[in-house]
Amino acid sequence: MKNPAVRTRFAPSPTGFIHLGNIRSALYPWAYARANGGTFILRIEDTDLERSTQAAVDVILESMRWLGMDPDEGPYYQMQRMDRYKEVLAQLLAEGHAYPCYMSQAELEALRERQMAAKEKPRYDGTWRPEPGKTLPPVPEGVRPVLRFKNPKDGVVAWDDKVKGRIEIRNEELDDLVIARADGTPTYNFCVVVDDMDMRITHVIRGDDHVNNTPRQINIFRALGHEPPIYAHLPTVLNEHGEKMSKRHGAKAVTQYRDEGFLPDAMINYLARLGWSHGDDEIFTREQFLQWFDLEHLGRSAAQFDEAKLRWVNAQHMKMTEDAKLAPLVAEQLARMGIAADDRLSAICGLFKDRCDTTVALAQWARPYYAEVHPSEADRAQYLTDAVRPALAALAERLANCDWTKEGIAAAIKAVLAEHQLKMPQLAMPVRVLVMGTPQTPSIDAVLALFDREKILERLENA
What whole-number distance in Å separates Cα of residue 58 and Cα of residue 324? Predict the structure, then answer.
């Protein structure tokens, strides 16, 4: 059932290029909003000032635009919301849900070492947590405190995760989280809650590396008088070696797939299947995906990226794509080779697309129509024999005078085969080598018909 109140978000950190593992975390919240007539929000979590860059923001926006995953709201930037965070920090302090902590970094590290030596879980021990009847240590001079969230001590924090099922964490397992650093800047887990609250996010669909943050965030939501959103934590995307997909482990930027000739709809199809399924359907359109998508069929186990499978999916989408839509994409690839296409390109795409898995491969097939070909010496030696040269000369003569249509060219070839008592491959393969630079192509009459007659005659002279 459609629910226009659905509000989802993608909240990347702009600290490097965006790869397929990241963009899959955007795909599902985008699809869920679209499937329900809801709102998809883009939020840039740019509080890591040392590592965040505008260039990384631009790549996020460019990648999403290429995939047709434009947000309905945003991008919102956390750095532009500092006044709001400080307002909520003051509210938590005033209501007794937060407190200043003067424990120095050195003291914290010494505490951790003692705990680890005693085989205890390293955690803040609540030295500065105000409690009824407790006397706090004297405030040290010249020390700026951090602010800590006063986590409940008893009970459990629980949620029904749409992927992982029921998750329960005992509050005593959680220490009092730092929600503002000594310089006053708020921390990640705090900012996320304020953002999700203010932006009225109903469903948080994100990677399962955030599961440990979730109980802390739920407790902050409740301290602020808000019920948390519904959570769905997605399993990791692994690379082809079974490692978590990351920049360090050789993941490519999303925009590189565009440059390598993949289609946006094929990428959506492939990424959708990396963690979600609709029966046994492997190939589907963007429209079908958005019609079918739900949270119930998200997978529970890690998905592994497979470039061969991606290429197969892309090849299926190329076959499904209208020639006129492929032509501008192939023209872009040709332009990178310094080649300007013309109005024949749509028909060229129609002739060759079934043998291609990317628009780069299709551009390579189109290239001989616009640039010189240089057959290999091996192909020349194998196919351009003295025995076939008279037939090639006869074909050139007939092609100079025939109707320049597929049918006219087919009739000229048929006549030469009969005259010289040859089978089709004996003539067609040498013609292909001269005209296209390779012995394997679609039907030779269809290939020749898209060339200018003069170009064919010129190339046949090179026999």
Answer: 29
